[in-house]
Amino acid sequence: MNSERLRKSPNIAIIGSTSLLGKELREMLETRALPVGKLVLLETEEYAGLLQEFAGEIQITQVISPDAFNDTDIAFFTCSPEIMRAYVQSGARFPELTIDLTQAGPEGTLYLHGITDSRLLRAEGYFVNPHPCSIVISRLLSELHNSFTVRSAAVTILEPASERGNAGVDELQEQTVSLLNFQHVENKVFGGQLAFNILPERESSRRTEARIREQLTGILGQTFPHPVLSAVQAPIFHSHAFSVFVQLLAPPRPGTLEAHLGNNPRFAIHTTSEGPSPVNVVGTDKIHIGAPRENPQLGDAFALWVVADNLRIAASNAIQTAEHIMLAPAGV
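RE: above sequence
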């Protein structure tokens, strides 16, 4: 790592550049005009030699290996959990500054921009990007708790197929086409027919819920009133959707809750009757919230419909983490 170059125009590696998350990260790096010295796109041997474009230049995908990181200042791991686990098991070293978005790597410093203490960031280290659900739930409940005090909460998570990577999206598409053509539906990624259906996916959901609970503790602390979580697999390609029930310490004045959330630039309040949907939030890194609905019998209880682009919100936090490290004073 070159410390001076890190602050001005770092060399960046994206491991898993052909994954859905890798593509999103690469596009965001380009649109945010983050100064990049050299970009290295890394993949398994299957995708070696693939041509990809970045900032008007053609990049050739290289094979993942420790030697590929020799001149890297920041490495973003966006590969599949299987590839990450294989890399860990190989005993290969990680770059000096790694940001892991895979949810399958070794333990590291969990960092959520704007909530986690920025003093934890260093020019060298292994940083874990929170699960996109952890990002959304942490931001929402933290904002509500700081202003109104949350007593309890319950969140039902509708997971998109894109959380299973390219294979998940492809299988949902293939199932949809098969059903519309009255053909047999095959499933390899999901536990059954997902198209036009909702699957409990018990084992996968339990792993996701456990991961989110663990990360919420790391982000919000042990004493925070953690929500009850229930994750299900929905027949949607992109974006998480959340049905949130929250009970506050005391009833806020009418309109206060909605107005307060609307003042936070990380949130987008939808006042129309339709509200946000997984389709119309794609490509934004905001957390979209429908008009809060008050329980008429419990003035301190509200239901909220929340939607966020899972790929965009994860990539955004990873880039903000890198930017904060780049802007930190030398020696920090």
